[in-house]
Amino acid sequence: MSMEGSANKHKPNSATDRRPPTADRRSIHVKLKERSYRVEAGAGLLDQTGTLARAALGEHVRSVVVVSNPTVDALYGRRLARSLRQAGFRAHSFLTGDGERFKTLRTADSLYTFLIKQSIERQDAIIALGGGVVGDIAGFVAATFLRGIRFVQVPTTLLAQIDSSIGGKTGVNHPSGKNLIGAFHQPSLVVIDPETLCSLPQREMRAGLCEAIKYGVIRDRRLFDRIARDIEKMKQFDNRALTHLVARSCRIKADVVERDEREGGLRRILNFGHTVGHALEAVTRYRKFLHGEAVGHGMRAASRIAERMEMLDSRERAAIDEVILSAGNIPTANSLALDDIMLAISRDKKAEAGRVAFVLPVEIGRVVIRSDVPLQIVRSALKDALS
Fold this sequence. Notes:
By secondary structure, the protein is of the alpha/beta class. It has helices at residues 49-57, 70-86, 105-117, 132-144, 158-164, 202-219, 221-235, 239-259, 274-283, 291-308, 314-326, 338-346, 375-386, and strands at residues 26-30, 37-41, 63-68, 90-95, 125-130, 150-155, 169-174, 177-184, 189-192, 358-363, 366-370.
């Protein structure tokens, strides 16, 4: 079953003219008591997903539904299905449209209907093969179908590999805002095969790099400096540079999630750049920006807010700007109405008592959360960052 449309994030012909990244296998344990799971990363692991899933899910699981989109399915669907069948699973396929505009309750309802028709039971599982949109939809449906079934993440974009596949955040969008409807539901396993990045267009890689820059700003100055130094290598799919980026980003995300699974405190720092980024996506109806691109604009705006509030040195702000811009050209936002953006920001799902919280850097590698930012400073920073 498929929904209409595809943004072609992965290009079938581009994998043949790029040398695939190779990497030693890395295993990261996300420690959440009974909800603990492993992130397995390494070249060629896509073909071992069935064996890994069988070990993680147990022998009692009979059927799995692979959720993907037409482009990714054409590239990797058969390999994954073969691996699953070899491990003794009955594998079904559900295809959805590609892009944030398809991350809706309507898509979720279509998937619910498919699961019912395939007689999926509580002990069965969903496998997400694709980027963040596929992972969010699959995870949300897994969290709510039959009051919760298990699922596995097999992310195929850089952004999904370093961020959205880890941590258990699932959800769908509403016309009034991004991810307003969702649930925390941890995967049982995450399988990352860096070779899938070779089919990504440069724009998708740039979007993923913006999300990676976030980790450096919020938690790791050494990672930030390494991205600044090696970003051209990363854009050219350099093996060593990408392997380090994926592994370190996953470890940072896992550490934060282990300390704050449900975003009650520390985990909120992962939203650096997202308050403005989500507003830009909502205002443009998820059609102009990739998620990482919107976050890139959002990080530049948040850094300017911190600078205007005399929390961040101007040289640090300039360094953040420089590395974001070095990731590549981001679609402009200077034609958007500031009032529309401010309204979307006010609807942010993380607002408390009507006050919007901003994650603001005080230095590269350390951030704070503030909900007392004057509106005039937000407007001024937005106008500057988006011009």
